[in-house]
Structures are given as C-alpha cells and as structure tokens.
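If your schedule permits, I should be very grateful for your opinion on a structural question. I have a record of one protein: its chain in single-letter code and its fold written as discrete structure tokens. Kindly check, if you would, that the fold set down in the tokens agrees with what the sequence suggests. I remain grateful for any guidance, and I place the record below:

***
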Amino acid sequence: MHEPKRGGRFFLVMFGLIGLLFIGIMAVVYQVSRKANPVMLDDQGRPKQTPPS
C-alpha cells in the first residue's frame, strides 16, 4: 500500500556533505587567521604601537 520514502535520504546526505564542507572551511579559516599578523591603524592610517601577544 505505502511506498517507502526515498527522497528524504538524498536531502540528509546533501545536508551532511554541506555540513562537512562548512566545518572544513571553518577549520581552514581558523588556521589562516592564527598565522595572520594584522597591523592596527590609527585615524590617519599610520600603524599603531601594539604590545606583542
């Protein structure tokens, strides 16, 4: 009488793949931001003296 629903599995797999892609992108962004050495600028665009972290 009832056919099993198969359409939901496709969306579940796609959601999982998109979630893994998002986590991978966040991990790469985290690693790149850890290596970054930003320079803070004052109102005139000159670098500010900041204490080393």
